[in-house]
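G., the chain you wanted modeled:
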Amino acid sequence: MKIHESAENYLETILVLEKKKDFVRSIDIANEMNFSKPSVSIAMSKLRENGYIHMNNEGHIFLLEPGREIAEKIYERHNVIARWLIDRGVPENIALEDACRIEHVISEETFTAIKKEALSK
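Predicted structure as tokens:
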């Protein structure tokens, strides 16, 4: 299933925040991504409508299975690509920024080849 890069970024951010916090709220996402609260609210509504997240009565956001699958895929791509770039001498801050862009457009074949090489070290 293909979704927009912005939706992938939101889902990945929710996953990252889950690893740091007991629960995730829209304000946490806004702060993490440097976005306005209204922009995040609109995005959360769309993600909820499409079955990627659930928001309870307290405003806590949870990834549903389809959202979690996408978030984990993007998160893995980000980490592997960033590590691969750093291993080639790219400064960490640049590698992390570039990984954020590459993770959304790289083909599955190319990512698999990079991952295979990265894991062989």
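The CA atoms of residues 24 and 61 lie 5 Å apart.

Shout if anything looks off.
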